[in-house]
């Protein structure tokens, strides 16, 4: 069992969104005592079909628990959007509180479902973080196979690879096709291959459209799907006039390095240190780690990147209200010097009183002008504790 960082509330009903396999049901099993909740799992086809056809049957199922159990857990609520009108009514009448899980709000929004008008908090759950893994964390293993909770039930690498291949095939087939998010599946499958190969890169919608025999608008919609279903994050270009020549296209980071390697057809092969793939995965891992931990903190934040030209950029810009912006350069190198901080040293002066960090695997702390270089774990702690 892993102690999760997410801080759920028992004072208010809530949605808990996250990709399959991130541990939503396990988390709620531990969060609620058996005697305080009743569970309805809509992965049960018969139950889902009944409640889709007859939403008011929910009242009959809950009647025996009235006054006895305060919480109702509905797993995979996106399978029965009509239930949410009734859920809203029961919350308003204070008859129950609800914990509603799902892969994302995308299908609910597309079906004009009732999202409870602020009567429910919204939480997102991700693969495991370094803090949650504690002594079980290994950077090499995390880069090769990711940190989905299930991966830690397997001892050997071939089993981990088999799990990831099954997960990627089954999850995307079920979640994307069965939920009718994409009706024409072959172009989307081709898109996933390309998106995985371009993980961490700047998105060129026109080039991808040509590769998958589609159009840029469709490609942009595919990226929207991945983002809405929490299968990745889109990192926009930093929008100011400080560099007129900066490129405006976004970057994209798939939510898990193991899934990214699987979709790219690399999971069966060794990950070579100091290779291009290693550098990509390290950058993706660090940015996902920061995004997960900041999300769990519950504070508002904005992430972006700045690129002026191909060899001059800042990998990550973190903005949080009135706090000083944090500028981060990410290098997978075991030893860094001033050359690795070039982007920060050149572009950092265009920001007002920024905090600047060079993240790497170099164990030694160093300073290059206003740039602090130190091990990646230390920098993440510095960022998360900067309040």
How would you portray this structure in words?
The chain is built from 15 helices and 13 strands. Mean pLDDT is 89; it is low at 242-246. The chain is globular and about 70 Å long. The protein is 39% helix and 18% strand. The protein folds into three domains: 13-124, 3-Layer(aba) Sandwich (Rossmann fold); 130-287, Arc Repressor Mutant, subunit A, CATH 1.10.10; 299-384, Trna Endonuclease, Chain: A, domain 1 (3-Layer(aba) Sandwich). With 387 residues, it is an alpha/beta fold.
Q: Which second-level CATH architecture of the largest domain applies? A: Orthogonal Bundle
Share of helix among residues? Answer: 25-40%
Mean pLDDT: 89
Topology, number of strands: 13
Radius of gyration over alpha carbons?
22 Å
Order of helical and strand elements: EHEHHEHEHEHHHHHHEEHHEEEHEEEH
CATH class of the largest domain: Mainly Alpha
CATH topology of the largest domain: Arc Repressor Mutant, subunit A
Helix count equals 15
Tell me the strand percentage band: 15-25%
Give the uncertain stretches in residue-range form.
242-246
Main β-sheet, spatial strand arrangement: 8-9-10-11-13-12
Number of self-contained structural domains: 3
Mind describing the biggest β-sheet? 6 strands, mixed
Characterize the overall form.
Answer: globular
* SSE class: alpha/beta
Distance between the termini: 30 Å
